[in-house]
Amino acid sequence: MRRPAALAAVALTLTLGLALGGCNLVGSSAQPKPTNTAASALGSLVPSYPTTLTAAIAKKNTVRAADAIQGLIANTEIVHVDDQSKLVAATTSTGSFYGVERAITTTTGFDVIPQAQAMEKLLVQAGWVSRNSTSSTAGYSVALTVATAAGASVLLLQADEAPGSPPAILIELESPDLPGK
User: Fold this and answer.
1) Quick check: 47 pLDDT over 50?
2) Which fold has domain 37-174?
3) Which of 6, 14, 36, 178 ranks highest by number of CB atoms within 10 Å?
């Protein structure tokens, strides 16, 4: 049986042919440009607002960022999402802003505290600044902020594993204040 010798001859021929003739992939470059996939993937977790903020832009960009943040939770673990998004009217001490509040109920047994802590780590990598966090055996809470061209955006992320209730994660995201009228 001479198959091993034949295979070795074929391999040698291919190696020599590639070495002498060169091998280029279609569209390849000897100087490839580096990409930062992590930064581009994480970018959707940070809302972007122009200097001149309108209610429509605040709504669109706040909802987009909240969707990306919620996307950090596996769909297979989500049972129900209670979304209370709305334009919040100005008060005597604050301006109006667009707010997204989502209570996300998860499957029984899903450990939401480590999930929220992992989400916080990704949010910080994306550019959010962790301001304050609290933790217990039944819950976890963290407040984060990010500076935008229109001002600061605030995010509150909470995990609730209180006995007797289904595990849940709460996302509260606020746009910067809208300009006064």
Assistant:
1) yes
2) Protein Transport Mog1p; Chain A (3.40.1000)
3) 178
